[in-house]
Every structure is written in C-alpha cells, then in structure tokens.
Amino acid sequence: MARSQQANQELTEVLNQLWGLDTNRLRPGTDYIISLQGKAGYVAQGSNYARDRARAPLFTYVNEDKLRSIETYAHFINLLDNYEASTGVSETVTSEEHQENRLFIDSVMETEVMKCAHKYLVRKGKSPSDAAQFKRQLYDIWFRLYHRERSGGEDSSGFEHVFVGETKFGQELMGLHNWVQFYLQEKHDHVDYKGYKARDNKDTPDEDDHVLNLQFSWKGLVKPIGGSFIGVSPEFEVALFTIIFLMSTEKTTSVRVKVDEYMLELVVYRHGRSIGTSYPKLLSSNNRDL
C-alpha cells in the first residue's frame, strides 16, 4: 500500500505532457464559468435523497459556439444522444452511429494529445504503431458493446458509462463523469447540481479548478459523489484513461498522479477488453496546500 501513496512518477510525466498539449482545453472564467456554491452533504447508501446545497446550476456560462467549433467536441456531442440510459435495455447501434463513433476516433487521432499518447503506448508495447490498428483498439476499449447486466442484451459500453451516464434498474445512477454531458444535461433540466464534495475546509475547490468532486441528481437519481474533469477536451480524457487501462491488467486500477497542480487518483475498471468505468478523484490542489 505504501507505494500507492506516492505519485506514480512515469505516469505523472506522461500525463503532464498530455496536459501541456491539450490546446482544446477551455479556459475557466473566459470560455466557461462555474458556480460552486455550497458543500454537499452525506447521502445514505442506496438513497436518492440529497439536500440541495446549490440553488443555481454548476455551469453559469459555456461558450457553446466555441465548443461546437472545435472538431473533437463537435463529434463528441453528436455521440451523446446515441444511448439508452437504462442498463438491461439493449443498445441498437445504427450504421450512422457507428460512423459517428469512427468520426470521433478519427478526430481525436488528429490531435497532438492523442498522437503523444499513441507514441507512448507503442513504446511500452501496449498498442500497434499502425494508426488504423490503433483506432480499432480504441474502438474496442470505448465503443464495443457488452453486458453490464447478466440478463438482457448488450446494454453498455465504456463510452456510454463514463461520458454519457447510465441508470441501473431505474434505481442507481452510474457513470456520467464528463463535464460537457453534465452541462448539456443541466441545461435541459435533467441534472440538478447539489454541491461540491470536499473532505475538510482545506479542500474547498476554486472556480478555476479543472478537477472537481461533485454531488448531483440525474433523472431523479442521486450521485453521492462523482469525480469529473472540468473544461478539458474529450481527447485528453480518452488519452489519459486509455493509457491507464492499457498499462494494467488488473480488474480495478487506481493510480496516484500529479497533473498540473492537482493530486489525483485515477480509477479505471476493466470489463474484458473494454473500459467498465473510469474517473478522476481530486485528492488535493496544491495552491491550497501552501
């Protein structure tokens, strides 16, 4: 256990390279504005009641024109309406949706972030150097459908769980760790932000933080705590979680890294050759540890 308390040096180095290359990351206070409001309280296991410590939405403003003018975001947003929220309900993937998945992968592959991640994975012997084969590997990790529930058809994929969100038997909210989806769902009144999660007063987040632990409800179901990057590009998240997924064979992988000023725990669950879920947990932000 002692080892995991330390930041994983090699991964920290690579992820900071990706962070530096993420030119499509939006700027807090300029491209978007968030309002953190109150600190969220405790939610009992299995309960869907949470006291609302945030009257207003989390996102006060997002420059949607800018968002949709960046190719990776535009393709990403096209994917968000392709899924059945409920597990146990088979997903039907139309040829148009397959095409949208491929366009998204093509667009992230054009970015410096993904090129850097690909080079690293090739160097580590985890990915084929051929771009077309690497895209197939990415497709399997993120878009291949699998059974999340034993009964029923192929009802889930890594992308759906992590970025879109799912409900389990209409009783539990799972996934939904992406800020663009959060913002769009909030705008349509499907998401109700309840406040930020923090362990103590030293932990209080700032409006310009790029990683937050949030409490919210979606479609009437409560997420007691969900970690999310804020403002980062889709390619950054895909690159980062793909690296962690491929660098480990464990069912559950949890690594500590320091990305920019954030001490994070990055968690990835494996579902065969695909991602079950993945998310960041903010441990601390160094401008507050001083």
What characteristics describe this protein?
290 residues, alpha+beta, three-stranded antiparallel β-sheet, 10 strands, 35% helix, globular
Note the beta-strand portion: 15-25%
Structural class, judged by helices and strands? alpha+beta
Please count the helical segments. 10
| Strands side by side in the biggest sheet | 5-6-7
Q: How many distinct beta strands?
A: 10
Question: Could you state the order of secondary-structure elements as H and E?
Answer: HHEEHHHHHHEEHEEEHEEE
Mean pLDDT level: 91
The rounded Rg comes to 18 Å
Question: Which helices and strands occur, and which strands form pairs?
Answer:
Elements: H1 2-5, H2 9-21, E1 32-34, E2 59-62, H3 64-69, H4 71-79, H5 95-109, H6 112-123, H7 131-143, H8 158-164, E3 166-168, E4 172-174, H9 179-187, E5 191-196, E6 211-218, E7 221-229, H10 234-246, E8 252-259, E9 262-271, E10 274-285
Antiparallel strand pairs: 1-2, 3-4, 5-6, 6-7, 8-9, 9-10
Helix pairs in contact: 2-6, 2-10, 4-5, 5-7, 6-10
Description:
The chain is an alpha+beta fold and 290 residues long. It has ten helices and ten strands. Helix 6 runs parallel beside helix 10 (234-246). It is globular. 40% of the residues are buried.
Structure summary:
The radius of gyration is 18 Å and the shape is globular. With 290 residues, the protein is an alpha+beta fold. 35% of the residues lie in helices and 23% in strands.
